[in-house]
Structure formats: structure tokens, C-alpha cells
Amino acid sequence: MNSHPDTAAESHPASNVDTNRFATLAFEREVEAPLSVLWQAWISPAARAVWSSPSPDVSVEIIEANTSVGGREVSICKSDGKPHIRCEGEWLVLQPETCSINHEVISEQGVTRSASLVTADFSGTEERSRIAVTVQLSSLAADMEEGYRQGFGAGLENLAGVAERTMLLQRVINAPRNLVWAAWMNPDTLPQWWGPEGFSCRTTRIDLRTGGEWVFDMIAPDGTVFPNHHLYNVVQPEERIGYTLLWGENGPKHADAWVSLEDENGATRVTLGMVFSTAAEFQDAKGFGAVELGQQTLGKLERFVLSN
Prior knowledge:
By secondary structure, the chain is α+β, with helices and mostly antiparallel strands. It has helices spanning about 35-45, 45-50, 145-165, 175-185, 190-195, 280-285, 290-305, and strands at about 20-30, 60-65, 70-80, 85-95, 100-110, 110-125, 130-140, 165-175, 200-205, 215-220, 225-235, 240-245, 255-265, 265-275.
């Protein structure tokens, strides 16, 4: 669920496995990012798909995700010339910015290779944070302990890099979640409020579903045009949206982004996260006021929802 074992570890018949197949592994990482950002980078499927790959030649596809206690997650780890590795897990504990516990089962070609319990403890401030991970491993195939050491070690290194280029925006809107969702995922209403104060949207194509897209221009108050292309890879009604931001239609990738909606005493907590493609792009965005402009966008969403 959090970081796949290194796919270089080989599988062997269970009869050849040493009976001493249990291990407890510990990992720690200091991160130059706020605790709130590190937590979201750890639990958000869109961010985990970016950082959980143990090496550049491995890709991770999250095919099912429910980030809640009792929620299930399934992902596939792919590497050219090697069998796909499947990870199935369940969240057991989610204490925001404090602790998470999940279990996961790793299989290859339908054969279970390992089971583990993963505990992550978090601490920090709005400037710097820390994650400590303990993995209690039961291996059913040879070399899994070393694979876990390599996989989690590389994964946490990647996590730190992702958290350090992640922008996080949150807002609580005093309206039910279904109304906030309806304003966001309606092709008629989304362009009405999207963008900072004074900006407008000019849509070329809009198809708000998994596999859909939104091709549009954002037009600044001075008439400057900013071409945008959003590619939607996850649309989970009233819960989560995952999408990729491109610089103009079919242009270079700008960021991986997600939106989550959570009930909060009858109101809705909106979280908008963006993992920028490079640290330089993240710093550029912060420099021109992207956090403030993003909060203006969520403010426009709030006004739209409350006035309709």
C-alpha cells in the first residue's frame, strides 16, 4: 500500500524458504515540508502513485483506493520484462498527522509472496516534519526482507522529494458534501467559479469523468491567456478526484493533482493537493503566489455553493 518491495527480489517455491521468515524493519526520514503536507503525501493515492515506485524503471498504478479506516487499496507494480506485483491492503488506523496503520499482502502471478503490518508515526511543525515507519513482515518467498528494505528505503526517499514539492490547499465549506461535489463536477458550473479572483475560463472541451478531460484557457483580468489541460484519471463520486495538469492541450505535464471531500459536522472539508513535476516549478509557483491564488479559487467555490 505504501511502498512496493524491490521487484528485483526473486520468487522461489515455498518449500525452499527458510523457516525463519519473520522480520521487523524500521525506517525514518526527515522532510523539509510541513507536517500537514507530509501526511497528505503519505495517504493520498495520487501522491502515493508518484512516490511509491522503488526505481525509475518501475511504475505503480493504483486501481482501487478508499482512504478511510477499513478502506481497501489495490495497486499494481509494473516493470518491463518482469511479472507484475500486486499489493492489496486495508487501512486499520488513520489518526491525521499522527499515525497510520495498514496491512498489505504482496502477490505475484496469483501466488502470495508476503504479508506485512505497516505502522507510520508522524511528527513535526509547519516547517519541517518526520516519518518513522515500522514494517512487521512475514515472508512466504525468499529474498523478501531485502526487497522490503530496498523498496521502503527508496520509497521514503521519494516521499520526501514529493512532499517537498507538494502544494496543499484546504477549506471547510458550510454545505453538505453532495452540493460541493455537484458544483465541482458539473460541466456547466465548474468553469463559472474555477480560478482566482478576476479570472474567467474559456472552455474548448469538458468531460468530467474517469478518462475524461477539460481543455480550457484561464483568462487573467489583464487579458493574459493561460492554456490548461486537465486529464482525469480518477473520479470517485462525492469523495475523490485525481487528475494530471498539462501546460496547454497535450502539453508537458505540470503537476499531478487530487481533490478530496470529507464530511465535517455537516460541512465539507475540501483538500486540493498538487505534486509539481519538479522542485523548480514548485518554487516558481510559490513565488508568483499560487497558494494565495489557490485559496481565492476555493473561496469562489464556497461563494458559488452557498449562493446556489
